[in-house]
Amino acid sequence: MWNGQPSIGKQTRKIYKRLIFFSRFTYSRNDRRISVKPKVPPSGSGGRQCRGSFRIVAVKRIIKLIQVVHINNICLIIQKYIKNPWDLCTFASKTSTMGSDHRIYGLVGKKLGHSFSRDFFGEKFKKEGINAEYVNYEIPTINQFPEIIKATPGIAGLNVTIPYKESVIQFLDALAPMAARIGAVNTIQITRTESGVRLTGHNTDIIGFTESIRPHLVKPHRKALMLGSGGAAKAMRAGLETLGLTIESVSRHAGQSDYTYEDLTPEIIQEHTVIVNATPLGMWPETETAPDIPYGAIGPEHVIFDAVYNPDPTLFLKKCQEQGADVISGIGMLHGQAIAAWKIWNGKTLISE
Question: In angstroms, rounded to a whole number, what is the distance separating the alpha carbons of residues 176 and 232?
Fold first, then answer.
């Protein structure tokens, strides 16, 4: 956490240089620390003044966010609120009142360059005139999750993506029944009371998935093969069970599932007419990868679902489509789970919950 003078690292120095550029502060540093002081207002600033101590408070608030927000995100925030370098006072005011009139939502994950959620919710907020923003919280370890809550007073709800859908549970106060059954969370409801902040975990992946795949299933589709065993796989497995299918799983290591990829034969593929990819294989930027299965055994009777949505279609779906299969992109699931998350954040009870 911020203690007045942060230690310098390569990434910290890069963030500080950009921060100083936007705020028009001068800075000095030695081997261990940075100090910041305001410059004289530039000509053409309209004579506006802002006490140095108050502007230092603004910088401290930014630094507090820097501890948990990816450098690209914090710079976007700075650019949004500091149209003029001397708008740091305005930024300080906004950050001190965000909890009352400005809502912040976000996505927690490890690598979020592929993420669709920020654009989806950003467009929704703009179209519907909602005073809110959506931020990507790219953190290297889930242990930094509590800092997101502490450093962001206006935060109203979070999504969670790989690899933290299971490990985030330890930081939550409660789980909705479906999330508890699945053992994975992709949506966090944040409520504030006089006693403090309460975090409740939900799983809307199951909602998006079942809504997406249900129209494609017919009576012959009774057995499914689940590729992967992570948080997303758990949600989709539960979804298939609610639809009456029998599921067997595939993973890379023996003992963790019904099959390993080496075990798969054409006969097994033909027996399972629903195949779901719940692994990140094929996700941008590794777009030339795909699950290692006997694609020659895929046929028109198969329904193939890929949870990966970027690119669309994935190499996995292309290979299956070439065999005549009915293929489903993960984008529909993504939209469905996002809409369900929005309902939860706004206090609506979902039937599946």
Answer: 17
As a whole number of angstroms, the distance between CA 278 and CA 77 comes to 33
Amino acid 174 reads A
Q: How far apart are CA 92 and CA 257, in angstroms?
A: 52
From residue 351, give the alpha-carbon distance in Å to each of 19, 54, 207, 209, 260: 46, 49, 10, 15, 36
- The two tokens of residue 186 are 């992709």
3-state SS class at 227? strand
In this predicted structure, the answer to whether residue 246 has a pLDDT above a threshold of 60 is: yes
Catalytic one of 165, 223, 318, 319: 165
* Catalytic residue list contains 111: no
Question: Which stretches does DSSP call E strand in the chain?
Answer: 25-29, 34-38, 103-109, 132-138, 155-160, 174-175, 187-193, 196-202, 223-227, 246-251, 259-260, 274-277, 303-306, 326-328
Structure-token match 């950003």, residue found? 122
Helix 331-345, helix 205-213: angle, nearest 10: 140
Helices (H) and strands (E) in the chain, counts: 12, 14
Containing 238, the helix (H) or strand (E) segment is helix 231-242
First vs last C-alpha separation in the chain:
36
Q: Where are the alpha helices (DSSP H) in 67-176?
A: 71-81, 88-101, 117-128, 145-151
pLDDT per position as a tens digit, 73-97: 444 555 444 444 444 444 444 444 4
Other residues' Cβ atoms within 10 Å of the Cβ of residue 257? 19
Q: Token pair for residue 190?
A: 């944040």
Share above pLDDT 70 across residues of the chain, in percent, rounded to a whole number: 70
Question: What sign for the dihedral angle of Cα 161, 166, 170, 172?
Answer: positive
- Closest by CA position to 335, among listed 175, 119, 136, 176: 119
CA distance 149 to 218: 45
